[in-house]
């Protein structure tokens, strides 16, 4: 099974009352000819120190079937995660499907502004087979 991952990142604390309230994950099937089937998993750790991968607990798992050139969005709201939690977003499936699905994820506040330090573009996800 192949996967791509953000790696573990911190849900930041921002001043001026900017509090992240939603994790947005946008997926696009870049294939022109086949449907891609992937699983989107979000894991969390409430550790105060940087956690290892095996300390993360799954908080969301969503199966996504995307037809060619289609896009979908998954939104995970608080209280599934809190400020100062650690998160990891993982896209898994067979090798071709994971390669074909482009992903863009970010945390946003209640007004919809994304928090720049939490933006992960497809190229920033680590891909492994």
Structure, described:
The chain has 129 residues and is mainly beta. The protein has a single domain (2-128), classed as Jelly Rolls, CATH 2.60.120. The chain is built from one helix and nine strands; from the N terminus they run βββββββαββ. The protein has one helix at 95-100; strands at 2-5, 9-10, 20-29, 36-45, 57-66, 71-77, 86-93, 101-109, 126-128. Strands 1, 2, 4, 5, 7 and 9 form a six-stranded antiparallel β-sheet that branches. Strands 6-3-8 form a three-stranded antiparallel β-sheet. The protein is globular and about 45 Å long. It starts with a strand and ends with a strand.
What is the topological layout?
Blueprint: E1 2-5, E2 9-10, E3 20-29, E4 36-45, E5 57-66, E6 71-77, E7 86-93, H1 95-100, E8 101-109, E9 126-128
Antiparallel strand pairs: 1-7, 1-9, 2-7, 3-6, 3-8, 4-5, 4-7
Alpha plus pi helix count:
1
Task: Categorize the overall geometry.
Answer: globular
Distance between the termini: 6 Å
Classified by CATH, the class is Mainly Beta
Average pLDDT confidence is: 91
Give the number of domains: 1
* Share of helical residues: under 10%
Radius of gyration: 15 Å
Number of strands: 9
Residue runs with pLDDT of under 50 for 5 or more positions: none
**CATH architecture classification name:** Sandwich
Helix and strand element order: EEEEEEEHEE
* Main sheet properties: 6 strands, antiparallel
CATH level 3 topology: Jelly Rolls
Q: Approximately how much beta-strand content do the residues carry?
A: over 45%
Structural class: mainly beta
């Amino acid at each position: 099974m192949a996967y791509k991952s953000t790696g573990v990142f911190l849900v930041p604390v921002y001043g001026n009352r900017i509090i992240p309230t939603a994790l947005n994950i946008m997926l696009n099937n870049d294939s022109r000819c086949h449907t891609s089937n992937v699983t989107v998993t979000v894991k969390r750790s409430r550790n105060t120190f940087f956690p290892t991968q095996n300390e993360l607990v799954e908080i969301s798992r969503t199966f996504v079937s995307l037809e060619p050139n289609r896009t979908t969005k998954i939104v995970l709201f608080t209280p599934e995660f809190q400020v100062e939690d650690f998160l990891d977003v993982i896209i898994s499936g067979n090798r071709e499907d994971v390669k074909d699905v482009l992903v863009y994820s970010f945390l946003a506040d209640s007004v919809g502004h994304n928090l720049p330090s939490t933006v992960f573009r497809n190229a920033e996800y680590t891909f492994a087979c």
